[in-house]
Amino acid sequence: MAENAGSPAPEPILKIKDLSIAYRSGAGDVRAVRHVDLTLHRGEVVGLAGESGCGKSTLAYGSVRLLRPPAVITGGSVSYHGRRVETDGVDVLAASPEQLRRLRWREIAIVFQSAMNSLNPVLRVRDQMLDALGAHLALTREQRHDRVVELIEMVGIPRTRLASYPHELSGGMRQRVMIAMALAAEPEVVIMDEPTTALDVVVQREILAEIFALKDRLGFSVLFITHDLSLLLEIADRVVIMYAGRAVESGTREQIHVRSSHPYTRGLLTSFPRLRGPRVKLTGIPGSPPDLRGALTGCPFVPRCRFSTDACATIDMALTPVEPAHVSACPFVSAERLDASPASAPAPAPVAALARESSGAVVLEAADLRKSYRLARGVAVEAVAGVSFELRRGKITALVGESGSGKTTVARLLAGQEQRSGGEIRLDGKVIDPASRRGFRSYKETVQMVFQDPFASLNPLHTVRYHLTRALKLHGRDGAELDGLLDQVRLSPPEQYRDAYPHELSGGQRQRVAIARALAAAPRVLLADEPVSMLDVSIRLEMLDLIEELRARLDLAVLYITHDIASARYFADEILVMHGGEIVERGPAEALTQAPSHDYTRLLIASAPDPDAFGRQLRAGRRTAP
Description:
21 helices, Rossmann fold, 6-stranded mixed sheet
């Protein structure tokens, strides 16, 4: 990655040079990282973005030698130049086990993606933090206890929660504990691997604000890894884009945002819905990343690039200067050419018509729906408190809110997976109990659910053919309709997917299979519970477009459940905002997002990633903070 060409740059605190990493397999080496350069300076935030499988996490873990076999570092160098190490720095790849022990956590700490998996479920938070301090700092018992209290309060958690087990904390609290543990030894570099991916937008904003307040206070540098480029454009000083194991573009936040010159970067930029500006059809990135076991000559983005030519097959992937501090691996495309391309012009019609009439017949109705959970004797929590709405044929209704707002509970009540505490559910105007055994089969032929996790919703022991054929026969349909289902969800040609196992499919492909299984019942209502939250940003757009296409072609009534109000604005007709078990605001998607009336709706909108707004607010807050 090129540095500013004019004056010599100061020595970076972390320097990765020509690093290559492969995963050994019987079918050939998977070259996950190929000749990547990356530098991180003191106090700097460098963002590393790209789709799943691009090599960004492998690069980060390889830089501190945290990878296990079959991963092998096949070339390159990594040097660390912290204030507390030797004058010449540390050659990480040649470091001894003892040197690595002193380097990790004390000098370079990592905040992992899944806080629930990273914390020991059978130890209290206090014990885990004490173990971490004892392993890396020479402190007395009293000093360690004082430091634990200081750390937990530093990340905004009351000291009383030190006695809690991880499962007793919310997702945001668990991630704050991981941040506190990472900062325990006052490292100079913190690697954050998708630290907010699984969090709601409100919690994500709080975590980010906390991270950067601590960064400004403690002075550490950050390598921030995410597939969400819109998030990096808010927080990073520099952004590095990776694709197929290579760095394909690098520049300042402003350069990547305004003058990106690689077609892949531009594809990422046009893959996330926005809350401001015109409501337009987005293009995204068609196709899938390449198999990294192949020859990999030339540009690996060729099959997905609308600008590709014969010369791209032999191109040297070296990064070349575009402007000062801005480099790209594509010598054929400029920002001006990308801007001038007809495909870059927004389509005048959005995914959902801005003023679609509410003429569809009401299929499913929730009337004063209630659900209470008993926690202890005499103690209950009302998860759903008097919720009412209608689902109409040919319309998409988005139910938006944070985790714990009750939106998934509403879906489970409508799907018959929970017994309601009160209220009514009406199907075609008739009161029905979806949770009762009588009529359950016929009800499921009308109402089907698509779950959040495409990895857990399919049995890993069975093929796509088994999952879909079983669903077809269960609902009295011919198993020969299998190929038609695959075509409906854009898994073509069908012969490529019929006999595949879930682990052989990407996350997006697995979610398509899950949707196809739901369509096997020929339903009139589709309940989609966070169907894109676990997918890459480019795949999310494909899934939203697929749901919209199915709604139009099959005249489905769709309930789309999400914490992302921007995606709700992108393709929903109506938005219902849920908070504390109640619907606090509802209205047409465009009107509600552009002129919200409830404070909670305004908070959701203000918390959604927006490079043009929140980033400025965050940086301004850091500049004016005492």
